[in-house]
Amino acid sequence: MPEPGIDADIRKARTLPSIYYTEPSEFERLKSVFKNWQFAAHNSELEATSLMPLDHFETITGDSVMLLRDQETRCLSNVCTHRGMRLALEPCNKKTLQCRYHGRTFNLDGTLRHMPEFEQVIGFPSEADNLQQYPLKRWMGMYFTAQEDVPDLPWKMLEKRLGFLEPETFRHDIGRNRDHTVDAHWLLYVDNYLEGFHIPYVHPELNQALDYSGYVTETFDGGVLQIGKAVEGDVKFELPPGHPDEGQDIAAYYLWLFPNMMFNFYPWGLSVNIVMPVSHKQCRILYRGYVGDAELASQGAGSVLDTVEDQDQWVIEEVQKGMTSSAYHRGRYSPTREQGVHHFHRMLSEFLETL
Question: Which residues have a Cβ under 8 Å from the Cβ of 207 and sit 6 or more positions away?
């Protein structure tokens, strides 16, 4: 079908047609967008384990992979090269990895170590018997991987803005883990995240913690950064001298990286939302929390996360129902409030043109 053709001028542009949110064929067509970088884990999650399967990556891409920590950290296939058995079913701390099906054993660098009953096999072992390695990027204490070599995200530019937070020092708080199923297309979850327009109407608690009039959206190649200003007297970041936002009362940085990763920085630490596609009318949201200052967790914009999540899920599930109406096709953007959604739709439109 013709691509949506999102006009570069937000004042003229129309949103994605409703068919992209409702048709199974369009859902399937968009799956290849997830070959881009995906969040894997925070470095604090690897301190007590040498091997960590990335179940969410398998849900998103269909590839079963794992992080292995030896002399260095690698992302390798989690599928045995003998008969396709998944190797690691849970995090563990081992020096070798043995398949539970027929005993094939691998070193933590992915090389084959031993295979019983294969003495008579001709041309064995070969490179194909080692585990496939995937790209791996470490950025501010977080690991990212992809199915194949893909262009870099603007890591250095983002680090200049957010590096003062030192997220590599944060600690994973398992009590903040969530895994939500939402009856809406994954596109809708991203659309909703990328604008603060709905905050006064959907999030009364958050609206009391943020100065809506000072909400800022910045777009860049590969993502969107939204900046939430603190109301007077509320908790805010201690910005270092020379920071781009020096002198401003910042309550939160909301970073989205194409296509489905959300990093919410608060004075207490970081919450991560990973959107996982399930079907044209359902998605899952993997939610993880990494704490830098636990004493601040009950203050400001970062203190009502579960409430905000429930409200977001309610509204996008209602929008999903509306998308199926014959009376709705596509809408328009607010030039002052929906720059992030427009940027996302432009990126999707350009991606679809390459298929």
Answer: 199, 200
